[in-house]
Every structure is written in structure tokens, then in C-alpha cells.
Amino acid sequence: MALAGVRMIEVPIENSDDVLEINCSQLPEHASEICDILENEGAAQRYYQQFALEYYKQGQADEAIVTLKRGLANAKSNDQTAKLPLLNLLASIYVQKAKQPLALSMVGSSSRDMLLTMATALLTEAERISRTEPNTFMVKGMLAMTRRLPDAALIQFNNALQLDGRNLAALLGKARALFAKRQYQQALHIYQQVLTQQPRGKPDARIGIGMCLYKLGHSNDARRALKRAVDVDATAAAPQILLAVIELNEAKRRFDLRISRD
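Request: output the structure for the sequence above.
Response:
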């Protein structure tokens, strides 16, 4: 039995009613060890997804990639739908890696392009399996935003929302796309909708609300939203940085105003 607060994954043992309990806080350094266990027990693809997510949450994206690739390699040819979550998760990890500072640098630009190309190929395969999977549209939206194509991203997030109107991740993606298109009032409305549905969600919709309010000229309201985000999570860097930027811009505006009057 798992201890309180300890995440465990129970892997069914083949040809048995027993399970193998694996403590997620003590995962092997190399994901191949977990994959060997899953292969030996003939585990379903969802277990590869679960362990990949655990590795990713712990900052080991490369081990998550190893796990997902092994899961895809072991997928049964007569059950292609089981591959969908793995394809979408692997594509989303590639997109996230493409947004990292090294990939964005001149040195890493070829690496970034390669990651986005691999993500595109995975999403194409996912679409061949199903054209009605909301998460595929979600990741396509993320990919378009990474390529700085907010119009294309908005189409994909809307596609996801048509299939699942309560998909908060798609709503957040749509809000970001609208913000990138400078449609701040529409973006604000969606961020407020997300906050109502998930007041403790991450990423915190209050950050988006604060950014929209500032762009709309409501500096004081923007400060309040961002300060509330800090109250909810004192370790969050984004709202604190944005507050500092607002204060700096406001100080510069006041200084410029005094100079123009003198």
C-alpha cells in the first residue's frame, strides 16, 4: 500500500493478479530500466505515458523521450489508437525543448528546427490515426505559437475547443494567441473564464489577466492581479518580474512627463 503523499504506479504482472509497485520519487536514473520492466510484463501503452510524465515532471525530459519512443515501438499494430497519447506527448515535449534558451540561440537554431520538424511528423502520424483528438489540435496550436504563427495557432485551439469546450489548456492557448495578435480585451475575457473555472490552476491565469489589463491601460488593476498571483504562489517568478517591469515603465513615464513639463 502506498504511503500518503507518495506517488506510486502499479504495473500489472503478466499472467498474474499481482502488481509491481514503483515509487515515482525513486525512478531509475535511466528510463530504459523502467521500459525493460514494462516490456517484460507486456504493459499497455498508458504505462509508458505515465512514467514519461513522471520523468518530465522531474526535469528529465530526455528520459521521458526514451520512454515514449520505447512505448511507441512496442505498440500493437492492431491498436493504433493506443499510440495517440504517446505521439501527442512526445510532440509536446519536442515543442517545449525547442523553446529552451539554447535552442533559441544562434548556435541552437538548427536543433530548434529539427525538434519542430520531429514534432510536426509526430502530429501528422497522430492525425492519420484520428482527426477528432483534441490533444492533437492542442499540440499543433503550441507548435504554431512556437513558430510565431498566432493565426494558425488560434485555428488549432478553436478546433480543440469545438471537440471539448471545457479544455482549459486549449482556452489558455487561445488566450495567448489572442494576446499575441494584440486582441487584449478578448484575451482578458478568456483568462478570466479560466480563472473562474480553475482558481488554483497552473499556469496561473492571473498572470495573463495582469498582462492584458496593463496593455489595456489599467496599470493599477494589472498590479492587483499580479500581486494576487504572487500571494497564491510566492515562488512564481513571472508575476514578480512583470510587476518590476510595470514599475520601471511607470517610473520612466513619470520621468518623461516631468521632463516635458520643464
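The longest helix spans residues 237-261.
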